[in-house]
């Protein structure tokens, strides 16, 4: 039987010397100091995380974790639950937004079924790590049993192990799960002690009545699981979801393996919050790809002290916002690696 003991194993520390070497190189490149703004600091950060003065993003791994949620029966989504498994098939056929972004970036894409309500059966590029046919409705019971939580966290860890084996400069976790904005909002509210209406948004596009049902479902769930709020692992078990726990597990495993991860939108952000609350040393390994349009994401980012790379009004999930940011991160690395120094170019006014 799987356990969560591995989540307490040591986490790597970023390489301060590689970061400092990258910072000094940035000062010598042919531009006024700081003029490339965050393209400079992102390259320096990636250098420290990858332990090399010239970071590279040649091998990007994207993993979409998919699962269903018992709370969907409360009428909190604009779409039916069947969309989760239908989208798993769409990922497998290469027709989803993240499929296009992965192809365009030359990134490898894997899908992990952590527990959609319907079993899609064997599909190319889809790993079955099913913990059940969706979680329990958390307005009535804990979302997961301890065994399911351990299995879901382990599914994330195993995805990182496969990524590492394939060679991985950067890990992107995406998610797919009808009703998971309700789950992410409940978890965020519990971990940040916020009111349900401060974190609930329209998700896939619920109307006013749907939003009211969502706020009410979160309110009832927080009341039922009140005692777990101070224990992030228990909050994740009671108020989380299979794909959210898998992503939290993946972030912890990335920090243990020394692989930087780019966090996607609101749902991945809630997983990041849970991972950081369980293991605060995970935080330096996380870059934040974008600010989602979903209500609540801005507060979540603020609580994590995170400044996202992009703000494009996206709210799709699947890892799409993080994947879009990879293009910018690659530009940061290319500038850092390819620009001439003042000395090389014979340009005056460089550092002494
Ligand atoms: O990533 C985000 O910020 C985001 C914001 C809104 C919706 N989503 C996606 O939409 C689905 C959840 O929306 P909902 O309305 O069913 O809770 C799920 O599959 C997510 O990937 C994702
Ligand atoms: C079609 C569709 C695609 C998605 N991708 C992520 N969440 C989604 C939700 C819906 C409804």
Automatic annotation (TrEMBL):
GO terms for molecular function: nicotinate-nucleotide-dimethylbenzimidazole phosphoribosyltransferase activity. It catalyses: 5,6-dimethylbenzimidazole + nicotinate beta-D-ribonucleotide = alpha-ribazole 5'-phosphate + nicotinate + H(+). Signal peptide: none annotated. GO terms for biological process: cobalamin biosynthetic process. PANTHER family: NICOTINATE-NUCLEOTIDE--DIMETHYLBENZIMIDAZOLE PHOSPHORIBOSYLTRANSFERASE. Belongs to the CobT family. This is Nicotinate-nucleotide--dimethylbenzimidazole phosphoribosyltransferase. It comes from Inmirania thermothiophila. The gene is cobT.
């Amino acid at each position: 039987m799987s356990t969560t003991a591995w989540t307490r194993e040591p986490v790597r520390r970023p390489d301060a010397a590689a970061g400092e070497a990258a910072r000094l190189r940035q000062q010598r490149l042919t531009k006024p100091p700081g003029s490339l703004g965050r393209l400079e600091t992102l390259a320096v950060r990636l250098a420290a995380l990858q332990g090399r003065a010239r970071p590279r993003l040649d091998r990007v791994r994207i993993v979409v974790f998919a699962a269903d949620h018992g709370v969907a029966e409360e009428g909190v989504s604009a779409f039916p639950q069947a969309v989760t498994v239908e989208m798993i098939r769409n990922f497998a056929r290469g027709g989803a937004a993240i499929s296009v972004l992965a192809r365009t970036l030359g990134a490898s894409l894997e899908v992990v079924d952590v527990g959609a309500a319907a079993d899609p059966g064997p599909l190319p590029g889809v790993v079955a790590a099913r913990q059940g046919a969706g979680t329990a409705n958390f307005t009535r019971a804990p979302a997961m049993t301890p065994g399911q939580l351990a299995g879901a966290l382990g599914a994330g860890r195993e995805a990182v192990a496969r990524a590492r084996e394939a060679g991985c400069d950067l890990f992107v976790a995406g998610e797919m799960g009808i009703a998971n904005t309700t789950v992410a909002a409940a978890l965020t509210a519990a971990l940040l002690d916020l009111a349900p209406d401060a974190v609930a948004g329209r998700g896939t596009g619920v109307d006013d009545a749907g939003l009211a049902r969502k706020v009410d479902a979160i309110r009832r769930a927080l009341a039922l699981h009140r005692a777990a709020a101070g224990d992030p692992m228990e909050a994740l078990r009671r108020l989380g979801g299979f794909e959210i726990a898998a992503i939290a597990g993946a972030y912890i495993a990335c920090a243990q393996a020394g692989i930087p991860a780019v966090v996607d939108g609101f749902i991945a952000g809630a997983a990041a919050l849970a991972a950081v609350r369980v293991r605060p040393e995970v935080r330096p390994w996380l870059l934040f790809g974008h600010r989602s349009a979903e209500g609540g994401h801005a507060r979540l980012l603020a609580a994590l002290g995170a400044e996202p790379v992009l703000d494009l009004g996206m709210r799709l999930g699947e890892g799409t916002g993080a994947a879009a940011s990879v293009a910018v991160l690659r530009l940061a690395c290319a500038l850092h690696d390819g620009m001439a120094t003042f000395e090389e170019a014979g340009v005056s006014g460089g550092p002494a």
